Amino acid sequence: MAGEKTNIISPAGFAALRAEYDLLFGDERPKLVEVISWAAGNGDRSENGDYIYGRKRLREIDRRLTFLARRMKAARVVDPAEQPDKDRIWFGATIELADDDDARRTVTLVGDDEADAGTGRIGWNSPLARSLRGAAVGDLRTVHLPAGPKEWEVMAVSYP
């Protein structure tokens, strides 16, 4: 698709997208089409809950399949273990950070589709990840957040 950015993703993240696509396309969608066909054969469709819900759910599945197909097409799988410069922060790095109050935080830079801030997995295009790219241990980086700028010091960098 024109203008769509490359979707950097780990091998595990790509496998998860593929698994979701395969489940929806190969399992859920065919079952739903069968239910809709059965419900359509029951007569009046205007008050047929199975038919109405089935059509709505089918549209949701088709939208998700289209989204997943685009994300996989734009994907560039990068294995973090194969990063050439392991002294600096690049895709897949696990970083220990300290703020001004010496509060520590550990984050891992992952693809945007794999991000889960609650577990410390932050998307490659997030403000924090963008500010950390290329940094090494001891570097100070300022992150511009909605609440204002915050400075972090890189304490450690590691790769799987």
From TrEMBL:
Q: Which GO terms describe its molecular function?
A: DNA binding; RNA polymerase binding; translation elongation factor activity
* One annotated GO biological process: DNA-templated transcription elongation
- Locate the Transcription elongation factor GreA/GreB N-terminal domain: which residues? 8-77
Give the matching SUPFAM superfamilies: FKBP-like (SSF54534), GreA transcript cleavage protein, N-terminal domain (SSF46557)
Gene3D superfamilies per UniProt: Transcription elongation factor, GreA/GreB, C-terminal domain, Transcription elongation factor, GreA/GreB, N-terminal domain
Q: Which InterPro entries match?
A: GreA/GreB_C_sf, Tscrpt_elong_fac_GreA/B, Tscrpt_elong_fac_GreA/B_C, Tscrpt_elong_fac_GreA/B_fam, Tscrpt_elong_fac_GreA/B_N, Tscrpt_elong_fac_GreA/B_N_sf, Tscrpt_elong_fac_GreB
Give the record's keywords alphabetically: DNA-binding, Elongation factor, Protein biosynthesis, Transcription, Transcription regulation
Domain named Transcription elongation factor GreA/GreB C-terminal is located at 85-159
Looking at the keywords, is Iron present?
A: no
**A Pfam family annotated for this UniProt entry:** GreA_GreB
Q: Do you know which NCBIfam families this protein is assigned to?
A: greB, PRK01885.1
Q: Which family does it belong to?
A: Belongs to the GreA/GreB family. GreB subfamily.
Q: Say what the protein does.
A: Necessary for efficient RNA polymerase transcription elongation past template-encoded arresting sites. The arresting sites in DNA have the property of trapping a certain fraction of elongating RNA polymerases that pass through, resulting in locked ternary complexes. Cleavage of the nascent transcript by cleavage factors such as GreA or GreB allows the resumption of elongation from the new 3'terminus. GreB releases sequences of up to 9 nucleotides in length.
- PANTHER family from the UniProt entry: TRANSCRIPTION ELONGATION FACTOR GREA, TRANSCRIPTION ELONGATION FACTOR GREB
Mind telling me what this protein is named?
Transcription elongation factor GreB
